[in-house]
Specification:
This protein has helices spanning about 40-55, 70-85, 100-105, 120-125; strands at about 5, 15, 20-25, 25-35, 60-70, 90-95, 115. The N and C termini lie far apart (about 35 Å). The protein is built from four helices and seven strands, in the order E-E-E-E-H-E-H-E-H-E-H. The chain has a five-stranded mixed sheet.
Length: about 130
């Protein structure tokens, strides 16, 4: 069952953020799909990261291929995830950045702080 879809003022459907989590050889993969924006979406992402770190995860890959929209709260959530992971002695990598997400990171001058990979497989292999 899918969560309800809300319609935005300009007629675009607002799809909630879906997070698919799996683990491969001690690397935790989070595939995000939908909008990484202020509200339940960014707080859900934060909670997922907090739970992984609390369970002892230190190697996390966030696949952004299917993120359709990001706002400042979404960027903030990704920055916070990176900071918290690093504080626990871990590494968080971003992979499959779509052009919109990459552009948002570039505009905010944040791209250099992240480890990025073109694909999930490349990110995992680099650990």
């Amino acid at each position: 069952m899918h969560p309800p879809i809300h319609t935005l003022a300009h007629g675009e459907a607002a799809v909630p953020l879906e997070i698919t989590q799996r683990e491969t050889n001690g690397v935790y993969l989070l595939a995000l799909e939908g909008r990484l924006v202020l509200g339940d979406e960014s707080s859900g992402f934060r909670t997922t990261i907090d739970n992984l770190l609390a369970s002892g995860a230190t190697r996390i890959v966030v696949n952004l291929e299917h993120v359709t929209h990001v706002d400042s709260a979404g960027l903030g959530a990704v920055i916070e995830a990176h900071r918290k992971t690093k504080a626990k002695g871990g590494r968080l990598k971003l992979c499959s950045l779509g052009p919109n997400f990459k552009r948002a990171l570039e505009l905010a001058r944040l791209l250099p702080i992240f480890e990025t990979s073109p694909t999930e497989a490349a990110a995992v292999a680099d650990f």
